[in-house]
Every structure is written in structure tokens, then in C-alpha cells.
Amino acid sequence: MHVNLNIAYNDLVTIVKQLPVSELKRLNTTINNEIITKKQAKTSTLQSLILKAPTWSDVEYDEYQSIRQLINKSRLA
Predict the structure, then answer these.
(1) Distance CA 77, CA 34 (A)
(2) Euclidean distance between the first and final Cα of the chain, in Å?
(3) What angle do CA 38, 13, 7 make, to 5 degrees?
(4) Rounded to whole angstroms, how far apart are CA atoms 55 and 51?
């Protein structure tokens, strides 16, 4: 179940300041775990994107290199 609450940041800070120390520690642990989880998800998303990226075969890359050398030798470069 997912609940959406629209609470302004200042209101949230006010609520957090009212919590006892034990609850603040629990909240801190929960927030730190959430940060770690989101960073890992972002990293895995980037990794999957990189792994799915198109690649050149050896033949295509060699062809590119030879054409690049010709371009570099021409007057255009």
C-alpha cells in the first residue's frame, strides 16, 4: 500500500522535532537505508543502460579506424 501525503518541508521539520529521541534514531536509520537503496537502484539502472548500449564489431571498428586515419590525413582536418 502506498500513501501519498503532501506535506510541506517546514511542516515535516516541525513534526520531526516533536519526536522523542528513540523515534528520531529509528527515523534516521530508515532514511539512511532509503538513501542507500535509491543510490543502488540508480547505479544498477546506469549499469543496465551501459550493458544494453550498441557496440561495434571488430570489423566495423577497424573500418572506422582506417577511415578516421584518412580523414586525419586529408586537408579537412
Answers:
(1) 51
(2) 61
(3) 75
(4) 10
Supply angle C-alpha 21, 27, 31, rounded to 5. Answer: 145
- Looking at per-residue confidence, does 2 or 15 come out higher? 15
Question: Sign of the C-alpha dihedral, residues 22, 28, 31, 36?
Answer: negative
Its pTM stands at 0.51
**What is the rounded average pLDDT of the residues 33-62?**
87
Q: Which amino acid is located at 29 in the chain? A: T
How far is residue 47's CA from residue 74's CA, in Å, rounded to a whole number?
38
- Identify the CA nearest to 26 among candidates 13, 16, 36: 16
> C-alpha grid cell for residue 35?
538513501
Whether the pLDDT of residue 1 is over 70: the answer is: no
Please name the amino acid found at residue 77: A
Residue 77 confidence (pLDDT) above 60: no
